[in-house]
Amino acid sequence: xxxxxxxxxxxxxxxxxxxxxxxxxxxxxxxxxxxxxxxxxxxxxxxxxxxxxxxxxxxxxxxxxxxxxxxxxxxxxxxxxxxxxxxxxxxxxxxxxxxxxxxxxxxxxxxxxxxxxxxxxxxxxxxxxxxxxxxxxxxxxxxxxxxxxxxxxxxxxxxxxxxxxxxxxxxxxxxxxxxxxxxxxxxxxxxxxxxxxxxxxxxxxxxxxxxxxxxxxxxxxxxxxxxxxxxxxxxxxxxxxxxxxxxxxxxxxxxxxxxxxxxxxxxxxxxxxxxxxxxxxxxxxxxxx
Length: 289
Known about the structure:
Blueprint: E1 2-6, H1 12-21, E2 25-29, H2 33-43, E3 46-47, H3 51-55, E4 60-63, H4 68-78, E5 87-90, H5 96-108, E6 112-115, E7 118-119, H6 121-127, E8 130-136, H7 138-148, E9 152-159, H8 163-191, H9 196-203, H10 211-222, H11 231-248, H12 253-267, H13 278-283
Parallel strand pairs: 1-2, 1-4, 2-3, 4-5, 5-6, 8-9
Antiparallel strand pairs: 6-8, 7-8
Helix pairs in contact: 4-5, 8-10, 8-11, 8-12, 11-12
């Protein structure tokens, strides 16, 4: 398939690489041209200096950009240049509102727009093991799902436009609560004088087990946070969640509290630390020897 790909960062770069490796003709665009050129040289994909060039004649345009405004800009620039009947798949985490706006704009031009945020982080993108939650035209998703499986382990259609983004919000709500609980558990174990590795071994095969525990317990205990999904990105996502909750009346007291805890981590200089750095604000409060 002829594919345009906009956004070649830590997530988009490896996702687009998987598409090249699967045999698709992929033209990559990034706001930083040097990053797009480097991606092209490494992967064998084609370089585009503009969104219009990346979208030119493409049957599928994939986005992995920053926020609502970025999506609006890229889709607006791309729509006139896409092939007739093309599908736009947006992997950016955005508001459900902008997903519905873009779906209407695409439909008016004879194209389809699918909001398709992902879960799995940078490691999932690198290893082709992302989970995709999609909203929008079900028939359009069926057409492109085999392509998306180049970097995914699962693609789930959740309903009409915006449903993918709402599902990603559910994902982020669940993660926020789990990570805070895990941070407090690690903190308590350390303050209580337990061997944190032994505590992990004792509880990680029982009811407390989670992906976050298996992948973040030991780095939390070691005070290592210089990797993974950045606090700035999580606060952006939680901001979308809390905006949606204010609109639909959902009660998210814990999510709002954890968002404030992340603001404390930012004030500690942890804007680019992994989300597990909730543990850092507790370690900072630990009694000194």
